[in-house]
Amino acid sequence: MERELQDYSHKRLNILTGEWVLVSPHRSKRPWQGQNEKISKEVRPSHDENCFLCAGNLRINGEKNPDYKDVFVFTNDFAALQKDSKDFKLDDGLFQAQSEKGVCKVICFSPDHSKSLADMEVTDIAKVVKVWQKEYLKLSVNDTINYVQIFENKGAVMGCSNPHPHGQIWSHSTLSNEVYKKDKHQKEYFFKNKSSLLGDYLAQEIKAAERIIYQNDAFVVLTPFWAVWPFETMIIPKKPQSNITTMSSEESMAFADAISAITKAYDKLFECSFPYSSGIHQAPTNGQSNHHWHWHMSFYPPLLRSATVKKFMVGYEMFGTPQRDITAELAAQRLKELI
Question: I want to staple 171 with a disulfide (CB 3.0 to 4.6 A). Which of 139, 152, 164, 175 is the partner?
């Protein structure tokens, strides 16, 4: 089926969500006369006195950041979720609503304002991983928290309001839409097949060897068969694990190595600081066993043809089904060549 998948329009199934993506490889040849993004040529200093996240600076709420040397965590000054939100529920016919509690945190990856994960040493990324693990554990013991979402928005084109290297954690009392779908499909597969959905998928991907970008002893970086974004990738642990706290110290270092490899490749692809949204999906913190979960990290970059041409989700994609032009196989090959 290789020729058909590379030459003709078709649909691919996302086994984690049960949703389809339309693939149109013939459209990659179409001319582009749409919007072109501006390439930022700003050379950032290692410390910006006007940055709310730099070490020793005042944040917008008047608090002073400590003179941190590696990773710094604080509660978001403009949190989307409130830990002391009043409990309520609206059940009025077709009007349905309920309260949602949570805790939102900001994680500064480095005191160096000029860097991103792609510029950091693997050992320094491993420190970020360690903080992710610590925060997951800390938030998981909160009775009102049932899910911990770790993510990063990199680049102004992804809505990042501050260029300082940082990510966020939003923890909340119910499962978000994407996590609910992934929880459902992994659970159904696990109880039917007595094995991990992503573990079995990964074994098939390794055998096919078409979308593998990079791998080390513990992790595989690949472009998912069902990828929506042009250069979307996923980091999957080779050993089924429900959440990031189950990693050994060696596996945590291998995870940091995988993050370093793909972010460096991204920056080389179009010779720019490559924008993306990344996030870790892992088991809920609802007190259940969640043996069906196989955690993973996804990167959703918006760039399509160059540093200036962005992939827009509009029209048919908003009203019908997500659609991509470049196939997952071709995208994986281009990234693999850069590692």
Answer: 139
7-26 confidence digits (pLDDT tens):
889 999 999 999 999 999 87
CA distances from 229 to 89, 171, 277 (A): 36, 25, 11
CA distance 146 to 172: 6
The residue assigned the tokens 């978001």 is 76
The string of pLDDT tens digits covering residues 24-70 is 987 755 544 455 555 556 678 899 999 999 999 999 888 999 999 99
Mean pLDDT of 203-217: 97
Q: Is the dihedral of CA 298, 17, 160, 152 positive or negative?
A: negative
Q: Count, in order, helices (H) and strands (E) of the chain.
A: 7, 14
pTM value > 0.70 = yes
Report the run of H or E that residue 73 belongs to, with start and end: strand 72-75
> pLDDT > 90: what percent of the chain?
78
d(CA 269, CA 117): 16
pLDDT at 94: 97
Burial of 294 (0-12, 13-18, 19+ CB in 10 A): buried
| Domains parsed from the chain with CATH numbers | 2-28+35-336 (3.30.428.10)
Give the helix, strand, coil percentages of the chain, each rounded to 5: 30, 20, 45
C-alpha to C-alpha distance for 338 and 122, rounded to whole angstroms: 18
pLDDT at 249 exceeding the cut of 90: yes
Catalytic sites, residue numbers: 166
